[in-house]
Structures are given as C-alpha cells and as structure tokens.
Amino acid sequence: MFSKTSIRTPKELEKYFTFILQNSESLLYKFNLLFNQLSSNLFQITFTIIIKV
C-alpha cells in the first residue's frame, strides 16, 4: 500500500499515521473477535477432553 519512498513531507507522514490509526482500530476489533472465538473454542475442546477422560 505504502512504499517507504512515498513519505517525504510531514504532511504525507501525517496522512500515513492517520490512515494507520483509523485502520488499526478496526484491525484490533477484528483481532479481538478472532481471539475471543479461539479462546472459547479452546475452552470447549479442553472441557470436552476433560469430560472424556
């Protein structure tokens, strides 16, 4: 998306950071959802194993 050579002026740098900040929020949200999903699945698996044993 962004090449290192494209950032030259403070204005461009500012745009770049705003872009990162705006997207990181949604990325964190997605990651959080994924993590919650994984942990609940892991819990269910562990629970099932404990019951079977």
From TrEMBL:
It comes from the Eukaryota. This is Uncharacterized protein. It comes from Cardiocondyla obscurior. The lineage of its organism: Eukaryota, Metazoa, Ecdysozoa, Arthropoda, Hexapoda.
